[in-house]
Write a structure and sequence with these properties.
It contains 16 helices and 20 strands. It folds into 2 domains: 142 residues, Nucleic acid-binding proteins (OB fold (Dihydrolipoamide Acetyltransferase, E2P)), CATH 2.40.50; 257 residues, 2-Layer Sandwich (BirA Bifunctional Protein, domain 2). With 507 residues, it is an alpha+beta fold. β2 and β3 form a beta hairpin. It starts with 19 loop residues before the first helix and ends in an 18-residue tail after the last helix. 34% of the residues lie in helices and 25% in strands.
Length: 507
């Protein structure tokens, strides 16, 4: 088929990447078409409702129910095949693609001539009847086709597609058009979030609440916050790094089972598992403890996988993980002993621990204490062995300023982290509700902050006051929603489950 004058190469025939010069030429052609449409009194950006009665996926999934029925559909043109007095067009809507069969004698020669000026990327409304071509392709025989939106940009061609990750994330709108699997990842995200909320509210009786995003004190975690300024109050403020301390205040106030899912912000590095803006879910169960929220963690993740994929056994990048409860458990000292051969049951003093730290060449070894040596040895040498799903327990008190001490060993806390694929996907503990102990831990953290550790936890006197009012025994949990979705959707980067990830501006 010869190309018509002023037309772009058909998407299904374009085999070469277009040069910048050619792209500019094609964009000018589109603007000229836009001008002519307006001059002819045809609105290229229709200001009316198009009554959609069917989606492509619905028609294809249940063809027998739709055969020979009249439908009204709408979507974006993705391919043209012109054959004289008839044309085949592929359009894409929110449920997939479907073929249109457009005959000149079905829509009048004048309308057919206008139709021939449409381009790849244009959005059209279509009326017609459902049928199968002689090749068995489910299609719509068009009786009316209307240009709803004129596209002035050029979509990537079929062969080259949109593969550059940086460009995909910057132009997510094009990514979603060109790469159907991207849409599937975000549909999976939606299923995961819906199931988590359903489970917590319907099965466990939790109440969803909202807490501040803009705060004076960014507490609840050890992380560097983003700082901004409120002009009217002449006050520096911070985006939250966690919602933990506000949720605990609500637990003090009498809300016994609460959760919040929302955005957190940490001024930290970026990699395949980290984005400065991310989604976290935190919950608090009054009169509960660490074991209670460990059970919740197993159920949240396994039920989300079941709802999204139909199974509690998932495959991530070629590796299989059975999320069915109960999950394995290992303590931090057990992990260090297992993979490094260092038994901290026989190491009692800071001096002995520092000697171990120097042996393993930990940074600033002389500034460490027994608890931080255990933590750093685990993070540097053992974390990558935790394929999981597995619960890591026995965190030293020095790295857990908000968790209760373990009565059997006050040097560690009643805390756990859940690992899958060597990633931490959840963190929970029996919440510290002793205001005197909490005040001292805040003082210790404040000293670290003043010594230059900008990730240390700041003093929060009002939170100490809330604990003095009385926090019941409470189990708390935080789940990294983006990482859970990554695993269930089987995508390689956190940017693949965040619609608009943080990007460095183009030069």
């Amino acid at each position: 088929m010869a190309e018509e004058k002023g037309r772009e190469p058909a998407a299904d025939a374009a085999e070469e990447e277009l040069s910048d010069e050619k792209l500019n030429e094609l964009r000018l052609i589109r603007r000229e078409k836009l001008k002519k449409l307006k001059e002819a009194g045809r609105d290229p950006f229709v200001n009316e409702t198009w009554d959609v009665t069917a989606k492509s996926g619905e028609i294809k999934d249940a063809y027998e129910d739709w055969e020979e029925k009249e439908v009204s559909i709408a979507g974006r043109i993705m391919a043209f095949r012109h054959m004289g007095k008839a044309s085949f067009v592929d359009i894409q809507d929110g449920r997939g693609r479907i073929q249109l069969y457009v005959r000149q004698d079905a829509i009048t020669p004048e309308e057919y001539e206008v139709f021939l000026t449409y381009d790849i990327g244009d959005i059209v409304g279509v009326e017609g009847s459902v049928f199968k071509t002689r090749h068995g392709e489910i299609s719509v025989k068009v009786s009316r086709i209307v240009l709803l939106t004129k596209s002035l940009q050029i979509l990537p061609n079929k062969r080259q597609g949109l593969k550059d990750p940086e460009l995909r994330y910057r132009q997510r709108y094009v990514d979603l058009i060109m790469n159907p699997e991207v849409r599937e990842a975000f549909l999976t995200r939606n299923k995961v979030i819906k199931e988590i909320k359903r489970y917590l509210e319907e099965d466990e009786g939790f109440l969803e609440v909202d807490t501040p995003i803009l705060t004076i004190i960014a507490g609840g975690a050890n992380a560097r916050p983003f700082v901004t300024h409120h002009n009217t109050l002449d006050l520096d403020m911070r985006l939250r790094i966690s919602n933990e301390l506000f949720l605990k205040r609500l637990t003090v106030g009498g809300f016994e089972r609460i959760y919040e899912m929302g955005k957190m912000f940490r001024n930290e590095g970026m990699d395949r598992n980290h984005n400065p803006e991310f989604t976290s879910m935190e919950l608090y169960q009054a009169y509960g403890q660490m074991e209670d929220v460990m059970r919740l963690t197993e159920n949240i993740v396994s039920k989300a996988a079941l709802a999204a994929t139909g199974s509690m056994v998932i495959t991530y990048q070629g590796k299989q993980f059975d999320l069915t409860p109960p999950w394995d458990r290992i303590s931090m000292t057990e992990a260090v002993n297992k993979w490094l051969g260092v038994d901290f049951a026989t190491i009692e003093t800071d001096a002995e621990a520092i000697a171990v730290a120097k042996k393993f060449e930990l940074e600033d070894a002389d500034k460490l204490v027994r608890g931080t040596v255990i933590s750093e040895l685990f993070e540097k040498f053992c974390e990558d062995y935790l394929e999981g799903p597995v619960f890591l327990t026995g965190h030293p008190v020095e790295i857990s300023p908000l968790a209760k001490r373990d009565p059997a060993d006050p040097r560690i806390t009643r805390r756990f982290e859940a690992y899958i694929n060597t990633w931490e996907i959840a963190n929970g503990f029996s919440e510290l509700n002793d205001p005197i102990d909490q005040l001292q831990r805040f003082k210790d953290q404040q000293a670290q902050l003043e010594a230059g550790d900008d990730e240390a936890h700041p003093m929060d006197e009002d939170f100490v006051n809330a604990l003095e009012v009385g926090l019941p025994p409470t189990g708390g949990l935080g789940v990294g929603i983006d990482r859970v979705v990554m695993l269930i959707a089987d995508v390689p980067s956190i940017r693949d489950v965040i619609l608009f990830p943080t990007m460095k501006p183009e030069a």
